[in-house]
Amino acid sequence: MSKSNLLKELYSNIGTTGALTFSSKSLVKKMLSYSELSKAKLIVELGGGDGSITQGIIDRMGEESELLVFEINPSFCKAMEAQFPQENVRVINDSAENIDLYLKGRSADYVLSSLPFTLIPKEATDQILIKSKNALTPEGKFIQICYSYLLKNLFKKYFDSVEANFTLKNFPPAFVMVCR
């Protein structure tokens, strides 16, 4: 799928994508700087979108790592499946609410998310965050890109520690929340 078609898809589904544009390389770099993906066994991405974060993850993860990418938009999934044919990358066209069904009892070292929690119904948000926390190893991290500092209070309901980091190098400027 071309970048213009991806942008068209983004704007026609703004209610589920929650973004005006895709994540900048600077934002992806900032987000991933709070992880050690080369040592991770299992990584989960929530909201694969155009694959910009996915590409950053793949560039940094080890050969033995496995990546599960959740995306509810079928067009984005199809494009990502073509872009990322690696055997250790699995694009899943399903809601992040069902993360537990795909982990099959395994734990993730990282759950990396760009989901638009301000647009997701409360019940779904609760399920996603509860299941994400339960999916992590004891040392694991949930790392979230968001555009409102106020979301820190939401994450504090589910995680013991939430660190907010701001970057201007994105449009719009964004926060990276690191939750443990």
UniProtKB/TrEMBL annotation:
Name by which UniProt lists this protein: Phospholipid N-methyltransferase
Entry-linked Pfam families: Methyltransf_25
Domain of life: Bacteria
A GO molecular function held by the record: methyltransferase activity
Oxidoreductase is among the record's keywords: no
Keyword hit for Methyltransferase: yes
Swiss-Prot/TrEMBL keywords: Methyltransferase, Transferase
